[in-house]
Design a protein that fits this description.
The strands form three sheets. The chain has a six-stranded antiparallel beta sheet with strand order 11-14-9-10-13-12, with no helix packed on it. It has two domains: 129 residues, Sandwich (Jelly Rolls); 67 residues. The radius of gyration is 21 Å and the shape is elongated. The protein is mainly β. Helix content is 0%, strand content 40%.
Length: 228
């Protein structure tokens, strides 16, 4: 099994002490080019480096791989779920065990559902549209609504309230027009892990990374301790 230091989310082990906690590292795909289409059998793997305890015996942890586009200034925009382990029981979170392993999905397959926002523009036809909220929008999403040309997409400005769209509006002005932003291929640049626990846990640490060649020896099920 080969590990690349640029593809490690938790190089020193992350202690998960809150219900939602993100990995130590955020991976920048633009600068770390070892992943993407063509990487054979790449997996996300999480190992337990110190055992977890909880006052609730039924406590579980869900290990989520999340991606975010560039917000236009070289920093992550809104993170969205790419893949997840599902609920891992407390009994599986013992030192030396594998908490999760699942295939790293093709980024192009990780599409988002539709969202709606109210849009306003004036002085048109124009390519500038103001939203009540830019949350959940992504550059490249198609826009459907009264006064919007068919096939129009978000050219830039996603996640903000001021969008530049790919073609002029059909009308000079629009006020609180219901706009639907449909699925797009998300241009994820940043990757992180989000650890979601059902109840407070203490004591444990995790080591998460992308493995480039998960040998068959590593295909034991999560929760089984590593012995070699």
């Amino acid at each position: 099994m080969f590990l690349d230091g640029s593809l490690v989310f938790d190089p020193t082990g992350t202690a998960v002490t809150t219900t939602n906690q993100v990995s130590t590292n955020v991976l920048d795909i633009v600068n770390n080019r070892d992943i993407g289409p063509g990487m054979h059998r790449m997996h996300l793997m999480t190992l337990v480096t110190a055992a977890f305890t909880s006052g609730t015996a039924t406590a579980t942890m869900n290990i989520q791989l999340q991606g975010a586009p560039d917000n236009g200034s070289g920093s992550p925009g809104v993170y969205n779920l790419i893949g997840e382990s599902g609920n891992v029981s407390l009994g599986q979170l013992v030192a030396g065990s594998k908490a999760a392993q699942f295939p790293f999905p093709t980024i192009a397959d990780a599409v988002l559902g539709s969202i709606t926002q109210l849009g306003t523009w004036s002085g048109g036809p124009t390519t500038t549209v103001t939203l009540g909220s830019g949350t959940g929008t992504l550059d490249g999403q198609f826009i459907i609504g009264a006064g919007i040309n068919p096939g129009t997409t978000i050219a830039s400005g996603a996640t903000t309230t001021t969008l530049t769209i790919s073609s002029n509006t059909l009308t000079a002005a629009g006020t609180n027009v219901l706009l639907t932003f449909t699925e797009a291929e998300p241009a994820y640049r940043f990757l992180r892990i989000n650890y979601v626990v059902s109840n407070t846990m203490t004591g444990g640490t995790l080591f998460s990374f992308l493995v480039l060649d998960p040998d068959e020896a590593y295909y034991y099920r999560p929760g089984i301790a590593i012995t070699n």
